[in-house]
Each structure stands twice: as C-alpha cells, then as structure tokens.
Amino acid sequence: MFKKILLGLAIIIAIPFIAALFIKTDYSVTRTVTIDKPVTEVFDYIKHLKNQDNFSKWAQIDPEMVKMYRGTDATVGFVSAWASENPEVGVGEQEIVAIDEGKRIDFELRFISPFEATSPAFMTTEVVNSNQTKVDWDFNGQMAYPMNLMFLFVDFETMIGADLQQGLDTLKVILEK
C-alpha cells in the first residue's frame, strides 16, 4: 500500500514536468501604431533610447528608478541601464545592437533582477504616406524548461502586448503634438 502511495505521488509530481516538454518555450509580441508624422521625424525620435523614458510604460512605473547611460545615444553600442526596488521594474539594461537608418532599430534587453533573461526587441518604421508612419514594436522572450510551464497560467503575449501598445499610443500622442 505504501508503495502505491509513493508511486501515485511520483506520478503527480512528474505530470507537470512531462507536460512542460510539450509546451512552447518562446514567445514573440508585436504591436503597431500609425503616427501622423513623416518617417524621418518618427525614426529620429525612437532611435534615441533616452526618449523611451517618455513613452515606455515600464519607464513610467517607478519614477524613482536610477537610470545610467553608457555611450552615445542613437548609436550602436549605447546602453540604457536601470535599477529599481520595484519588482515590476527590477534591474537591467538595454543596448542598441543594430540600426538600419530610417527603418529599424534593434535592442538587446538584459534583465538582471528579479529574474535573469536576455531578450531581443526592435522597433521599425514604415512610410504609409508622406505624412504618416507605421511603427511596429516587437519583443521576444524565452522561458527555458521547466519554467515554460508558466505559459499555461500567464498569457505573456497579451500582458506584454498591452504594455507595448500603451507605449506606442503614448508615443503617438507625444509626436503628434
């Protein structure tokens, strides 16, 4: 009887780990906004990481966060780092890793605390017409096995997507003033 109880407990414990083998380990979120400004004006604004403090939801969560910068903003290699006691913000940094002038800026986000992760992200601009620009903001993430089990309980794509969209909507307001 004791062996059956132990076997039952072992099966119950093993089920989530087995299930995690069949759950995705990565996600990608893209949100879009159209801004009534020419593409050069929009791109010149978003390529400066310091400007994200004005429109990114995450930068607004803790006005007391410590910000540090290394390098020349709007150039490859520029790093914007942050540190906050607020667990929603934590500690990390973002680096510009590539710029396709007028079209795309690629970032690498390195989260240090409350969890460690490295995630690529990018923003693109596309001409709609001479006075309108489509902006996409894309964020990618990964959760290694067995942490990917969290995908069953938390919809990261919706959660992060809402934050990206809020940032883009704020960006639109700022640039259309």
UniProtKB/TrEMBL annotation:
Alphabetized InterPro entries for the sequence: Polyketide_cyclase/dehydratase, START-like_dom_sf
Database matches in Pfam families: Polyketide_cyc2
Signal peptide: none
The protein, known as: Polyketide cyclase
Organism the protein comes from: Shewanella ulleungensis
Lineage: Bacteria, Pseudomonadati, Pseudomonadota, Gammaproteobacteria, Alteromonadales
